[in-house]
Design goal:
Its EC number is 4.1.1.23. Residues 18-269 form the Orotidine 5'-phosphate decarboxylase domain. Keywords: Decarboxylase, Lyase, Pyrimidine biosynthesis. The structure is a single chain. The protein has one domain: Alpha-Beta Barrel (TIM Barrel), CATH 3.20.20. 44% of the residues lie in helices and 15% in strands. The chain has helices at residues 5-16, 27-32, 39-53, 65-68, 71-87, 102-113, 136-145, 161-164, 174-189, 238-242, 255-258, 261-280; strands at 19-23, 59-62, 91-98, 123-126, 148-154, 197-201, 223-225, 249-253. It is built from twelve helices and eight strands. It is of the alpha/beta class. The longest helix is centred in the last third of the chain and has 20 residues, at 261-280. Bound molecules: ligand LLZGTKA7. Ligand LLZGTKA7 binds next to strand 8. Residues 22, 24, 63, 95, 155-156, 200, 202, 226, 229-231, 252-255 line the site of the ligand O=c1ccn([C@@H]2O[C@H](COP(=O)(O)O)[C@@H](O)[C@H]2O)c(=O)[nH]1.
Length: 281
């Protein structure tokens, strides 16, 4: 039987820690790394990050946007990076933020969450703002194949507040209602265990403001936490930022690690892994 994503995540946490190294081939980083701003450059960058992360960290998160800008050649480069990461035993979170309806959502889910697909990842970020129910095909396929899904809940960008802080008649914020939906799904599918569906909650936010501290999860909920490092949140504050949600937090860092360049990235990954470990005590 296939192990669930939650079980696989628990194992990664124990074996390799909670750091997730972002693979974000920004134009300025490619230049700083001495690589061309092309699909081949993005691919070489991604493979070098995978090599640095392998055996040091447990999780990587390629940002699909930085590959997609090169069209089909960028996707070929991305496929190579995904395959290398999975071969290296890293857990791969595809940051594609997909959101659609009905059979179109099914198409995205098949592309990213089907074993053997060229774009296969271990977990995918998805956008629930077409309604949480629109995610059903992705959630079901993920459960079927031991994959994970991270639902944008409260994002680290300031513009997200307009939507995510809106309240329903009962005074629950949109963000809190997403967290509630995720927790219900996990409680139904993985009672008492780490869920396979997680939330994206930015480390730059005050969770109380979004009402996220008022919905204590009934299972350990995976939290993909961007906003550390370059965006300003400090790993040492992980416990105070996330409170009850801290046990499920995956610390995502991209530019703060990638800025170390090709010769410094392995050390930068090691330093970040150690910082995350000591933040957890
Ligand atoms: O709320 C969100 C959701 C996703 N992201 C993504 O995470 C990385 C962050 O990069 P840094 O260089 O560590 O700031 C990037 O790929 C974002 O698209 C996010 O920042 N916030």
């Amino acid at each position: 039987m296939t192990a669930s994503f939650g079980t696989r995540l628990d194992e990664v946490f124990v074996r390799s820690g909670r750091l997730c190294v972002g693979i974000d081939p920004h134009r300025f980083l490619l230049e700083a790394w001495g690589l061309p701003d092309t699909a081949a450059g993005a691919g070489a960058f991604g493979l070098a990050v995978v090599e640095a992360a392998a055996g040091r960290a447990g999780i990587v998160k390629p940002q699909v946007a930085f590959f997609e800008r090169f069209g089909s050649a960028g996707y070929i480069a991305l496929e190579g990076v995904l395959a290398a990461a999975r071969d290296a035993g890293l857990l791969v979170i595809g940051d594609a933020k997909r959101g659609e309806i009905g059979t179109s959502m099914e198409g995205y889910a098949e592309a990213w969450l089907t074993p053997g697909s060229p774009l296969e990842v271990d977990a995918l970020t998805v956008n629930p703002y077409l309604g949480f129910g629109s995610l059903q095909p992705a959630l079901e396929l993920a459960e079927q194949h031991g994959k994970g899904v991270f639902v944008l809940t409260a994002t680290s960008n300031p513009e997200g507040r307009d939507v995510q802080l809106a309240e329903d008649r009962a005074g629950l914020t949109v963000a809190a209602s997403m967290l509630d939906e995720i927790d219900h799904w996990n409680a139904r599918h993985h009672p008492g265990a780490t869920g396979s569906i997680g939330a994206v909650i930015g480390a730059t936010l005050r969770l109380e403001e979004f009402g996220l501290t008022e919905v204590p999860p009934t299972t350990t909920l995976p939290i993909l936490a961007p906003g550390f490092g370059h965006q300003g949140a400090a790993v040492a504050d992980l416990g105070s930022i996330y409170g009850d949600l801290a046990p499920g937090v995956i610390v995502s860092e991209s530019r703060s690690i990638l800025a170390a360049g090709p010769s410094g990235i392995a050390d930068a990954v090691e330093r970040s892994v150690a910082a995350v470990r000591s933040a957890r005590g």
